[in-house]
Amino acid sequence: MPDDTKISRKEFVKKATLTGVGVSVAPFSIVQAKNNQKVRIGFIGVGLRGTSHVEGLAERPDVEIPALCDIRRDNALQAQKIVEEAGLPSPELYTQGETDYKRMLSRDDLDGVIIATPWLWHVPMAVEAMKTGKYVGLEVPAATTIDGCWDLVKTSEATGMPCMLLENACYFRNILAVLNMVREGVFGEMIHARCGYNHDLVSNNVLMTEGGDFGPGTGAESNWRTRHHINRNGDLYPTHGIGPVAHWMDINRGNCFKTITSTATKSRILHDEIVERGGHNHPKADIEFKQSDLVTSTITTANGESIIVTFSTTLPQVHDQDYRCQGTRGIWQIGNNSIYLKGVNAYDEWEPFDKYQEKYDSILWKKEGENASGESHGGIDYFVRKAFVESIKKNTTPPIDVYDAAAWSSIIPLSEESAAQGGHPVEFPDFTDGKWMTNERIFATR
Amino acid sequence: MPDDTKISRKEFVKKATLTGVGVSVAPFSIVQAKNNQKVRIGFIGVGLRGTSHVEGLAERPDVEIPALCDIRRDNALQAQKIVEEAGLPSPELYTQGETDYKRMLSRDDLDGVIIATPWLWHVPMAVEAMKTGKYVGLEVPAATTIDGCWDLVKTSEATGMPCMLLENACYFRNILAVLNMVREGVFGEMIHARCGYNHDLVSNNVLMTEGGDFGPGTGAESNWRTRHHINRNGDLYPTHGIGPVAHWMDINRGNCFKTITSTATKSRILHDEIVERGGHNHPKADIEFKQSDLVTSTITTANGESIIVTFSTTLPQVHDQDYRCQGTRGIWQIGNNSIYLKGVNAYDEWEPFDKYQEKYDSILWKKEGENASGESHGGIDYFVRKAFVESIKKNTTPPIDVYDAAAWSSIIPLSEESAAQGGHPVEFPDFTDGKWMTNERIFATR
What region holds the Gfo/Idh/MocA-like oxidoreductase N-terminal domain (chains A, B) (predicted)? Predict the structure, then answer.
């Protein structure tokens, strides 16, 4: 790992001062953390997702959880109990409304903070956390606007505090094996990839209740998530798909996204489902949802590859993140979990991936697969949490950094812009300011 | 079938006269054909593809093959032998160079003609055939330019002679079962489809010889097809993919293509393969192929659906036409040949398609599947040939008509235009002049 990814307090203060960012300078506690090998992590948002992270981190011997914040006291109490039952000191709770997270962030005994709140809170909370000297672990997507992406990048640069996107999909066992193969040149030169997030969140009552309702008080995600479908129309959730692909293609490390074209279909499901569940007189039956049922995007890269990204969380379908990795020497796809390699496989014949999975298995999974697989999402959450904790302990740039967070999340607003213009290509901002040309790989290299 | 799809000699002559198209008015022989129930079909191009059609038609009791044309006399002799061995009168051969097809078309004893020549010959030959009063069966793609598409449409309208695109993929057994399901509303309202032509034509020496050569005299398709990869860059072969989808979506019959955005990757395989096979001093090693290794397109429709179309004939991969049919109630995809229907299948669980294949099996396959499956391409060629012959016998518009031929083939030049502009959306011409709004379905309805 190059030295310049280290974070020093000196650099942090210097940058914060030079750029004039309003920083509440908190005692920089990472050095202490390194000494006692316990990192102290606070949580903003302990709903379904945050609680899952609490459970995972409470089991780690190198983590303490001194503080928990949630606007719902029930959530906080439940998470507190989990921490206590793990034998850790009971965390202090911050449940006094929407801005109580700021009070928590003003503590000087937190090394890092995990943010797992509704999307629109991600940027202000992460920005505040960095300004108070916390190492940030941010749930996906990092931001939903280009300004939000820039805010994260600029604040991280100004404060010297890292912001890791907690993109668990990057740690799928097959995704990591394919990454090893890409890096060893098994697929030749990269040409194309596919990915997406196609997951029916209607039938399982995530986006609406059984009665067809959504909005505040209706459910964990229907509380806030469905609202985005009224006013937006784009790929609202791109990072589970694009994260793995970005690593295959060395995005921000020798390569970068160039343009995106996005196409939106008509919008049917949410309206029809409300009527089906609640009748034409349902109070939400006359809402016109702007979000289409399926958004398809094509991204181009500086190195001449293309990427198809799909998004649908309303259509009835089998959950499919649709990964495909294609190069000049072969192809792997998740659909049949099979591979075809030139000169290896008989013409036009797929080979099951199993043999390659074993041969190119990630060191992470080889070492800790058994421990990991008992944890949430089949183990990938274990690895993303571990990466976060280890980055704090080692005082390094996280393997999925603020530039990745910005580039991947920027697909949301860029896809909206393109779709609104009938698929007109839109250029990606360069959040790295040219450093994508010289940045070294940091994901899954150590 | 509506009466206005009938072709009358009166109408034919009237149209030809009114529009002033230069027509060599040939005796209109279709009425005679109907009486003796033998249709007389000539062939232009009896290479691999044309010969396959000769074999198939020679077996039909309702077909005679009085004439064969090919610039290679060997091809013509071989096809002649096939006809003779089927017990039919020996066809006259036209092998005196590139324009000898005109001499064949001047005959007055041909009801129809099948054209299976290199792509650039399709339009001039089909136009001449229609002008001489022949019912045209045209191999795919119909044309490679927008002007070519219009030439076919205008000539067909002026002469009253139909031009059927011989798109065999429309007759796949699963494609037709899915079509029945779409028409019965099993998938709800159509939202999305995928299709493509991804077929490694390099490894099997179609696009170049074992020594890395191509061009005149090198092979059946490397003779002419590879040349397109030097100067063009688009989806060069869209109809196998889009044909089935067009029927699912009623394109030109209540719906139409609106826009296309196309994205081209870098170009590697052809150059690298030439060098790999013939070394850096190979005479073709310094050719810069403009055609990228993969072109992905997204098409929008008047009814608000989107279609992803992919094209690659150079990358090492397993042949994949990548069909997917997705509506508001469910999805079918060819990758795992499985289906998911809302309210039928357990959440997030695919069901194998077999049961549906049986239930919604096309009447064509039910009746004649056994006969058909012995023929080329697993039987689909039997059905496309039968449709052509039956259309002539019944004196009707063919099930895949000149407007379909134009719309589907126009993807080639439109994708080139879009890709050249970095994915800028390009509008489809309306070859039907608005009649797509009122046209009735004709494919697989009788």
Answer: 39-164
CA distance A440 to chain B (A): 23
Specify whether the CB–CB gap between B348 and A318 falls below 8 A: yes
Q: State whether B263 and A266 contact (CB < 8 Å).
A: no
Tell me which CATH homologous superfamily contains domain A170-363+402-437: Dihydrodipicolinate Reductase; domain 2 (3.30.360.10)
Inform me whether the pLDDT recorded for B302 exceeds 90.
Answer: yes
Higher pLDDT, B51 or B23: B51
Question: Which of A315, A337, A345 best probes binding to B when mutated, by most B CB atoms within 10 angstroms?
Answer: A315
Give the pLDDT score at B36: 58
DSSP B251: B
CB-CB neighbors (< 8 A) of A308 in chain B: 296, 308
Mean of pLDDT values over B292-315: 98
Structural domain boundaries in chain A: 3-161, 170-363+402-437
Predicted confidence (pLDDT) at residue B442 exceeds the cutoff of 80 = yes
| B170-362+400-437 maps to CATH 3.30.360.10 | yes
pLDDT for the residue B20 = 42
Does the pLDDT at position A9 exceed 60?
no
To the nearest whole Å, the CA of B311 is away from the closest chain A CA by 12
**Cα–Cα–Cα angle for B356, B360, B362, nearest 5°?**
135
Structure tokens at A110: 């937190």
Element (H, E) at B440: none
- Going by C-alpha positions, the residue among B40, B20, B22 that lies closest to residue B392 is B40
Query: Over 60: is that where the pLDDT of B21 sits?
Result: no
Q: If you average pLDDT over residues A229-258, what whole number do you get?
A: 98
CB contact under 8 A, B423 and A298: yes
pLDDT at B84: 98
What pLDDT does A20 receive? 42
Looking at the predicted structure, is the pLDDT value of residue B27 above 70?
no
Of A259, A266, A317, the CB nearest to B304: A266
- Do A293 and B191 make contact, defined as CB atoms within 8 angstroms? yes
What confidence score (pLDDT) does residue B446 get?
63
Looking at domain B3-161, its CATH class is alpha beta
Among A261, A275, A415, the strongest candidate for a mutation testing the B interface, having the largest count of B CBs within 10 A, is: A261
Amino acid A118 reads P
Question: What residue ranges in B45-104 does DSSP mark as E strands?
Answer: 63-69, 92-94
